[in-house]
Write the structure tokens for this entry.
Amino acid sequence: MLAKRIIPCLDVRDGKVTKGVQFLENVDVGDPVAMARYYYEQGADEIVFYDITASNERRGIMIEVVRAVAREIFIPFSVGGGLRTLDDMRAVLLAGAEKVSIDSGAVRNPGIIAEGARAFGSQCMVLSMQVKRGAPNERFPSGCEVVIDGGRTPTGRDALAWAREGARLGAGELCINSIDRDGTKAGYDLDVTRLISESVAIPVIASGGAGEPKHLYEAFTAGAADAAIVASIVHYGEHPIPDLKRYLRGRGVEVRDAVGMERSAK
């Protein structure tokens, strides 16, 4: 069994890491370069960086910030926000990222998933999905609709159908970001995470809602997730990454050694 991954998320707006609730009322919490280095040294398995207003503002990603973060960490680094073309992806990868996270651009042009997979390999392609819950019906049998542009624009796509299409087109991972749970600290949306995880043959990342260690345990067990995004739970120092890993190990969940901590101690 592969070890489960803990992935701090840096949502960046105007050059600062920010955090809100359900994509609203964001407040700045720190510098992305310093925070990435801190989480690396704490033992994060990966870092994900989202330029959260790039898609809505129809602009390119803050590539200089990506370069600065990449110089400070030695773990997988995923970058998303405003990526619409192969050139956008190439620029991010050349700046030091190992993976690109595509979201709104992929919904508008699904073919970009296959193009990216052919050009850079599926292992580089993360399809990030913003999902919003409603009542299951014929149009949305999963009970969740895909939305884009930072949760502003409904797409009419069912979450499960889009996840399957993304996997078929060549995505190497899926990140299921629940807008309803985002920033609430009420726990991940386990139902849609498990539904998608059991329906595709690629890793699934749970995102949105982590507020205490048991929520990660639930994501990895009841939610069948391969990895979990964390933000508020670590940004405010409530549950440092080493504590989360100790908690999970104590409950029989296999997690990776804290490589960053080992490097920084040498």
Remarks:
- The domain at 5-265 is CATH 3.20.20.70 (TIM Barrel).
- The longest strand covers residues 5-13.
- Residues 260-266 have pLDDT under 50 and may be disordered.
- The radius of gyration is 17 Å.
